[in-house]
Amino acid sequence: MNLGLLGKTAVITGGSRGIGFATAKQLISEGANVVICGRQEDTLMEAANKIEKETGQRVLAIVADMTKKSDCEKLIRSAVTKFNRIDILVNNAGVTSTSPFLDITEEQWKEDLELKLFGAVNCSKAAVPHMIEHGGGAIVNLTAISGKTAFENSMPTSVSRAAGLALTNTMSKDLGQHGIRVNAVCIGLIKSAQIERRWKKDAPNLTWEEYSEKMGEEIPLGRIGEAEEAANTITFLVSDAASYISGVALNIDGGASPAL
Predict the structure, then answer these.
(1) pLDDT (tens digit, 9 = 90+) per residue, 213-250?
(2) Where does the record place the Ketoreductase domain (predicted)?
(3) With contact defined as beta carbons under 8 Å apart, do 182 and 171 qualify?
(4) Whole-structure pTM value
């Protein structure tokens, strides 16, 4: 299937590891120009070099903090300067932050919303005019299944992720007239640096496959998902193969969520 990504320009926030990194590799393998960002320069440059080594193609890596509006604007401006256009935006930057309601400080609330909600808002606002100029585009906002069905002690993440779902739905309505599709993916238990650290700390005697099965006992598919599996879905959603899909929030969770 021709996904129609050849020559398009994609910006991926939080692209130095995990799902963002896997998505960058997938999109560049499909012929897209790819821009990634991250807050830590050494980690970001290591990721860019690894992508080039594995794909034979170079990515543009920009050090940027998605909690800062000026950095969001710098990221988009750098992409346009390099490639003259933006067709795809993947708002992936975010970390899991979960605590009981009474334990969360005002500063933690602000930090979480600044990164996960306003980071997506500010990057999208900077990118959309360039998409309109070239006849349309595709945006994917990464959220979590807890944004649909929150679980105990899951704040502030569940709240900021729910806001991301509302943002996605509203943007799809406002931007459809410009040929811009906006969708979300709701991530469940997916292999990440954070989960790998937990595995090595809590169960160093188990192989990854054994640990994945143990952690996945309550997941219908029986295992932790791989970052590449999420990247495959994101790549589909931003491609021409999904040209009539907008305003949806697709679970990538192995069937774990009770919500569609």
Answers:
(1) 999 999 999 999 999 999 999 999 999 999 999 999 99
(2) 8-178
(3) yes
(4) 0.96
